[in-house]
Amino acid sequence: MSRKKKNIMSFFCVGFIAVIIATIIINSVFVKNEGGIQLAIGKHSSALIGLSMASVIDYGDHYQIACHYPQTGHKKVDEDLRLLAQEEIDSFISLVKAHEQSERFTQDEKWLLGLDFTVVRHSEDIVSFVFEYSLTKDKEESTRLFSGSYDLKTETPIVLGRLFANDYDYLGLLAYLTKNSLSQREDYEQIKEEGLINNTLTAINDNYSCFALAKKHLCLYFPVGTLSTKIMQTIEVEIPFSALGDCFLLKNGQLPPFNEADLLYISANRHPKADPDKPMIALTFDDGPSIYTPKLLDYLEEYDARATFFVLGNRAEIYQETLARAVQAGCQIGNHGYNHIGEFTQMDDTTLEAQVNNTNCAIEAVVNQSRIYIRPPYGSINQEVADKLGVPIILWDIDTKDWKNNDTKIIADQVIKCAHDGAIILMHDCYFNTVEAIPLIIKALKEQEYQFVTVEEMLVTRGIEPAGGKIYYSTRVIK
Ligand code: ZN
Questions:
Q1: Sign for the pseudo-dihedral over CA of 200, 201, 202, 208
Q2: Are residues 429 and 334 in the same domain?
């Protein structure tokens, strides 16, 4: 939370916001009832009791922002909702600023950010908001759906895991029930033919992260392009609570208490904080986490630096606390396969899928990241495999060969000598000498004004939107 706050503060300090921030409290919002979307008239709808809407309307020479988000009258929840909107705004403005610096920029361009929401209500205390985000870049529009559910009585968030008994494979159950429900649709054959269904319904948290709690059922939302590219609207699946059985813990409007351990399930660091006017570099560490990683995190925190960890799934399962700490420190977590056995380009589909999915599961047990980037073991990749993986593939342009040069000074000198703006540096956090090289590297490069950022942050700040199936070596070289 404190990182978010810092984000917000620097946003205001830097003075990105240009002209107007209008916060309008309106009493009528779009409401999602069990029947479908309708325009509700404020106080008359029971779903809206106690809710109001805040809006941020802002514009500059090359952008317009219209963000609307709910307020509940519950302080903690409202702050959460406000930050959520603010993060989207910060991220958008950074994108616009980066684009204004790029060669592709033309003076008459206007980018638009929209955020709107619908309300789904289970009870007076339990309420869900489904947000629709839209980004229009000079006529090219992209949209995203995400949700937030809250218990207003205790002012706590409701993550999916809180709704189900511990140790129960609820994602497996949701995958099964969702498929069942889809098979009742008239257009099921068409959906099946497109072949997206298995991937989209794989039992990982990310696939079921957009949900809402209605009176008697759980709503799951699958945006355009996830289950079908031909059906041009969000596909909503309703799972009756009765189908979820005893493992479902929301009973008579009562939820199990919010567990501090849920906080381990942290939102990922999606938003750039880097100053685009200064050089930046992405330190990346493969093959961990290891016993040396906590020391590395000490160094990163000491120098206010961030890094990206491409972890092995089998190690991530053991070093959960280290992984959570890395995320809290603002680091990005990527996938380096499950156990480093073999090259992705030599694997059959089943083995490849297991290497990737098992690692994603291990990461998602701790981290709530919207997309998990991949660094294939040995950097071995081709376009066919990259397309199959469907997420950004991150290689490197500076190799420290730290596994061979097991010497702190040689490793540090190598990085300092080769550093350039936009570089991605390959290291391994399973070697003592690598970790001890970090303070030397950071101190030397900070003198040259370098910022140490995550891979995603660096790409986005340099105006590159990371795309699935693309291979990145640095901000200069992309295939
Ligand atoms: Zn490796």
A1: positive
A2: yes
